[in-house]
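Fold it.
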Amino acid sequence: MLPFWILVPDFPVAKYAKMSLAAVTVNDGLHLHAIIVMPKICRFSKRLSRHFRLNQMAYVVADKPLCRLHAKRIKTDPGYVVGYALKSIKSGRSSVDDIVIFPRSRGER
């Protein structure tokens, strides 16, 4: 089985911890939050966070729009994490039409 991905666009906001100039100048700071549900029986033999860390170069290629991947296992308070991932929708900067879900259904392929 494959992981189930929900990707939501997000934009930078002013905060105490400043982001690097490169992080906010690429795509005007637009980035994606992803909630990834991993089935117990899955094609990945290791944790997704470890997979991305070890295989970063397979995903992040020079002259392509992806700058980096970062994954973290949700151990506590999943409601807060999901709310944080969806905050751009709550603030009105994105809409539910901007949400991307993978894998796509057979009818969407």
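The two ends are 18 Å apart (CA to CA).
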